[in-house]
Amino acid sequence: MRRLFVALDLAIGVVEELLNIQEEFHAYLDANGDLPQTRMRWTHPENIHLTLKFLGDTDDALVSRLSDTISGLVKPLFPFEVETKGLGFFPAPELPRIFWCGFAPESAEVLALLQQAIERDLGELGFEPNERAFHPHITLGRVKSRANPNFAKFAQKYENKSFGKSYVKDFVLYESILTPKGPVYQVVERFTLGA
């Protein structure tokens, strides 16, 4: 069994902007005296991506069929651009668990359509659909402490800020390997759009 997910990688410039935001948030908490009681698990730079579909534990025998299905899905697609924009907390700033960066509305719309197509096609292989509505986002960190009103204030400062655009030319099938230091993501296969 392999723990798999389908994702999109982001442009290096976008990842750098998001790492800067992680540092700014850390400094913001420090300046407000909130750092001692705030516990965050930050997403490492090499793990920053957009998950389109988490597949979970997948039988090795199914991987080749999975590969064929994703190949068929990306064949009619052309490379496209997405814009990362805005910050927030899931499920809400008052009860933060995930610190995230979102996407501009037009990009979010395109990503939602892609995700629906992935759900449909992979559903035919027996993968369960996501129970929650898809909200395209990049996880920047996981909050491990109580809520803080300063979290919402920080996110509001950046609700309309663009963190750059990424040119998407492939989908990536990743394996998530759990380690004591956190997950390590390894590329299983890349699927070039239009190929």
DSSP summary, beta strand count: 9
Number of individual domains: 1
| Euclidean distance between termini CA atoms | 28 Å
Q: Which sequence of SSEs, written as H and E, runs from N to C?
A: EHEEHEEHEHEEE
Overall residue-averaged pLDDT value:
92
Strand content: 35-45%
Overall, the morphology is globular
CATH top level is Alpha Beta
The low-confidence parts are none
Helix share bin: 25-40%
Count of DSSP-assigned helices: 4
Enzyme class: hydrolase
Function: Hydrolyzes RNA 2',3'-cyclic phosphodiester to an RNA 2'-phosphomonoester.
Domain Phosphoesterase HXTX: 35-100, 105-185
Motif (HXTX 2): 137-140
How is this structure best described in words?
Strand 4 and strand 5 form a beta hairpin. A five-stranded antiparallel beta sheet has the order 2-6-5-4-7. Strands 3-1-8-9 form a four-stranded antiparallel beta sheet. The model has no long low-confidence stretch (mean pLDDT about 90). It has one domain (about 1-190): Cyclic Phosphodiesterase, Chain: A, CATH 3.90.1140. It has helices at about 10-30, 65-75, 105-125, 150-155; strands at about 1-10, 40, 50-60, 80-90, 95-105, 140-145, 160-170, 170-180, 180-190. The chain has about 200 residues and is of the alpha+beta class.
Question: What's this model, at a glance?
Answer:
The protein is built from four helices and nine strands; from the N terminus they run βαββαββαβαβββ.
What brief labels describe this structure?
195 residues, alpha+beta, Cyclic Phosphodiesterase, Chain: A, 4 helices, 9 strands, globular, RNA 2',3'-cyclic phosphodiesterase, 2',3'-cyclic-nucleotide 3'-phosphodiesterase activity, RNA 2',3'-cyclic 3'-phosphodiesterase activity, EC 3.1.4.58
